[in-house]
Design a protein that fits this description.
433 residues, mainly beta, Immunoglobulin-like, 5-stranded mixed beta sheet, elongated
Length: 433
């Protein structure tokens, strides 16, 4: 049975080490006495350990942003489990308050039988892994060292002093206190104290810049930073990274899939999120997880993907015509200018913008061609300047001016091939074209 010294137990330093995000403190708890396997130090009460049923009390004052394990297990000569004791931590804080930014954690063992003559029970090794807390932005623990103040105490267990009674230390941590009606109810809450300082190294996923937006059907890329600070050489191998999002049916890929962390510096992983075509607008978290391996645990960072509204579609639909014809809309541009909207017809029934067929009859008297008025004509009719013969100009209907001109008084019936109809003579005589 390992040591649970009655009356006097002392602490000795065993080891301290660190990895990424964790510091390890090793302590040796030793019974006071003259034996070869005991410790000569007498502790605060100045007495040697005596045989009996005992409980071991172990406490640590640590930084407030460092977490402690719920249980501790001794390594030798046989395991004893110590469980967290909020009552013991409260008594430590009451009688020896932790300064601002620090706190007490306490553990207590079950009742065990200790024999002062048993050489194998005179010491045991206890190790504690203290985990460093990441900053709110995901960056690693900012301080280069972690200091813990370790304390040890013991109390008797008897019929009127059960193992499950509340922890009471009296008015002093370092003096023996009778916490029950008889002398068997004895406790000393702090018989020995030891300060351990160790280097702290850490990695963190920083997501302050992991912001991106995109529209349905697109891809958004969020950069995440794996930041190292005081990471011991060889403490962490390649870090596997993966990402996920709450956006339904979204595919996420991370590049690269593994990172080589820097001892003091940054490496970047990019999470590409494929936004489904039916995605609803809104903000969605994207979480990147970095697996540091083994006892180092994982680190996570959360970015934000903003899905925008779908971009407007094609041109607006054209309104239907009231007469049931093809929809009206802006004229279509073609080579050579603007063509009339498809389906438009002239009042005389001919297709707008096209030449009249050769031999077509004239329109009714006094009715011109409103779709193709003569160039230069004034409202209400007027003189149309005739081009000079031989100037070679080509009219808008393909006829060369000065070639094949007909007399102004030629009878109605049209000129074949000109695409123009002559006006019918009125009672007042012929009018100019």
């Amino acid at each position: 049975m390992p040591v649970l010294a009655s009356g006097c137990a002392v602490l000795r330093f065993a080891d301290a080490s660190g990895s990424a995000g964790t510091v390890h403190h090793g302590l040796r708890v030793c019974a006071s006495g003259p034996g070869a396997t005991q410790c000569p130090e007498k502790g605060n009460i100045g007495a040697d350990a005596t045989s009996g049923s005992r409980q071991l009390l172990l406490g640590a004052q640590i930084p407030g942003d460092v977490s402690a394990p719920a249980t501790l297990v001794s390594d030798a000569p046989q395991p004893v489990t110590l469980s967290q004791s909020p009552g013991y931590a409260a008594e430590l804080q009451r009688l020896q308050p932790a300064p601002r930014g620090r706190r007490w954690v306490g553990w207590m063992s079950p009742a065990v039988t200790y024999a002062a003559a048993n050489a194998a029970q005179q010491s045991m090794l206890v190790g504690a892994d203290l985990r460093l807390a990441a900053r709110p932005d995901g960056s690693p623990y900012p301080f280069p060292t972690v200091t813990a103040i370790w304390v040890v105490g013991v109390r008797n267990v008897a019929g009127d002093a059960p193992a499950d009674r509340p922890v009471a230390c009296g008015g002093s941590l370092t003096r023996a206190f009778q916490d029950g009606p008889t002398a068997r109810n004895a406790v000393v809450c702090l018989d020995s104290q030891l300060t351990v300082t160790s280097a702290s190294g850490d990695l963190g996923v920083v997501a302050t810049g992991a912001r991106a937006s995109g529209r349905p059907g697109g891809v958004a890329v969020l950069p995440f930073v794996l930041r190292g600070r005081n990471v011991p050489a060889g403490a962490v191998g390649p870090v596997l990274v993966a990402a996920a999002t709450t956006l339904p049916n979204a595919a996420v890929a991370v590049t690269p899939g593994a990172l080589a962390p820097a001892a003091n510096g940054d490496v970047v992983a990019r999470a590409a999120v494929g936004i489904p075509k039916g995605a609803s607008p809104g903000a969605y978290p994207v979480t990147l997880t970095a697996d540091l391996g083994g006892a180092n645990g994982v680190r996570t960072g959360v970015g934000t993907l903003t899905v925008l509204r779908r971009a407007p579609g094609g041109p607006p639909a054209r309104a239907p015509r009231r007469d049931g014809g093809p929809p009206e809309g802006p004229p279509r541009r073609e080579r050579g200018g603007v063509r009339r909207a498809r389906g438009h017809r002239r009042p005389d029934g001919a297709a707008g913008g096209r030449q009249a067929r050769a031999g077509a009859g004239p329109p009714a008297e006094g009715v011109g061609d409103p779709a193709d008025p003569p160039e230069g004509a004034r409202a209400g009719g007027g003189h149309v300047p005739e081009p000079r013969a031989g100037d070679g100009a080509v009219s808008r209907h393909g006829q060369r001016c000065g070639e094949g001109r007909e007399d102004r008084g030629r009878a109605a019936g049209g000129v074949a091939g000109t695409g123009r109809s002559s006006r019918a003579p009125s009672t007042g005589g012929s009018r100019g074209r």
